[in-house]
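Recap slide: DUF5689 domain-containing protein, sequence and predicted structure.
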Amino acid sequence: MKRGSIYLLFAAILFYSCVRKFDEPPAFIQPDIAATSSIKALRALHSMGGFEKINSDMIISGIVVGDDKSGNLYKQICVQDSTAGITVNLGGNNLYVDYPVGRQVFIKCKGLWLSDNNRMIELGMIDSTMPASPSLSSIPSTLLDSFLVKGNFGNTVSPKLISINQLNDSIQSMLIQIKDSVQFVASDTALTYADVSAAKASVNRTISDCNGNKAVVYTSGYANFAAVKTPSSKGIINALYFVYKTTPELIIRDTSDVKFFAARCNAAPVSISAIRSFYNGVDVLLGAMTIKGIVISNATNIAAGNMIIQDGNSGIDLYFGNSTSTSKFNVGDSVFVDVTGGTLTSYKGMLEINLPATALPTAAIATGKNIVANVVTIAQLINNISTLENTLLQINNASASGGSGTSFSGNKTLADASGSTTLYTSFTANFAGNVLPITCNNWTGYANMYNTVQFQIRNMSDVISSTGCVANKNFTATYNFTSVTTTSGTTDPTTVPTAQNVSFSAFAAVGVGSNSSAAGRFSFSGWPLGATNGSNNFTGNLSATQYYEIIITPSSGYQFDLNSLTFILQRSSTGVRQWAVRSSVDNFASNLTASINPANNLLMANSNNIFQIADRATTTAQTGCSIAFGANHKNLTVPVKLRFYGFNAETNAGTFSLNNVTVNGNTH
């Protein structure tokens, strides 16, 4: 082997032998130190109200059971051995980094002082700035390693089981668990643990066991869970035991110390029917009560935090907050819910109970429960929504249609022979993208109010093919005025549009000129004045006796829905500047909802649903005028008149012209 190769090999060996293993932290070495006394013996040196300096070489050892990680302790840790606990005042922040819960700590007590803060015994240094009034202070951060020796990590301390009426000074600073189920008193439920304002004040919330024994849960306004709301149910609580004068205080490390999942003390079972009867138009704060029911909603097809349950012939929506997931519950799960402190209210017309997230049951008490759907017609549903709301229903021989696109997602129309209603599907539903069936089906689901009645299915198995539907037919009727001439009079001679199960009248002009001013469109003069050239100030109004009119009539035994209306507008240079559309459904009292679609910078629809054209000598045809019909134009059984009012013309000779008037709707 060449000498150069030997040197290279030696250098490589030397290099790799010097590489540190950065990914291997040094193993913790337990310190060579031992306790010489117990914490109980240390505490025994103190007399309430006094100051005692430790002059002996006393060493105590314990496990950290409370640190400052959540902010509910400040410059303090609680250390506990098998005999007692002690609160130690330490300088510095983020003490949990060096002294986390579960770490063993040895404390060299010589030179430290004992005292009490309103009967709460603590260990620290003394502040003699005012000799006549000394106080206990923190061990400076620069001296922590002189007094505290860090031991191993990961030690577990089981909380001491105790009843509220057994709380006493001997368990100060220890981790305890109230062995009897406790709950926040009613006036302290669903409130934040502490003050979340800029003041960040600490707050006492009172807990009670079922025998009326009480203690307070003390929380700092700087705790990172201060804004969390207290649960309304009952359960067990782990805490550090503190006292303030004669008041027992429980200091939780974080909200995982509070495990309240059971029904409150003395909470009486109440039927959903009875709960619903409490509401009379004003929100109701519920007392100590529980309800039981079977889940009939699918978590994917309902707004976050909601769950619908049914008991007997009554159902109700439970709302646990929009950040709460109810996905662990399936259709058919039987649940037991503590509604104590909940609010019975109406949302968009639907009755619901507002509850904190902590009221969500931990699990179902049974699964696979079946509710037999109540068979109703859509007319029966609409007329009896207050009693049928949020119960399982079956609508037979119905078909779906309407809305944009062909999927379930969004608002669609469900119609049977008796009428129609909204079929709503959330975009989050696992079937939202499925093609909407337009054939005849039997539909199972539940209905409720969202300003108007809406029906929801849970999954595709809720839709079963049927053959008994009355056909739901969409129609598009267009008036194109091809036969209109300047001598054809006030009634359009063009053949009227046709559609199945509905008829349309000819277009007619009322209270204006005697003939159209142009051929191939409906254009008349003689409209109310009120506009001047070069100005957007209008002084006129529509006249109830001057309009264009069409009449839409359903065939015998059928109903119809009006969905939308579009038309082309044209005017002469001194013609109308504004126009509106009204309907006989409300006896022509209000303008129908107007918009410009597609956008047209020469047209606008104002907040009063009045169309307006720009102040220019615009005489060409303008597209974009659009009308949307609301819920009051659904399930129509009598003829409906639509009237088009032109007004604020610049001269009597100015015209108001329509073309390609298109009405969209459906019959059933």
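The chain has six helices and 46 strands.
Residues 3-18 form the longest helix (16 residues).
(End of recap.)
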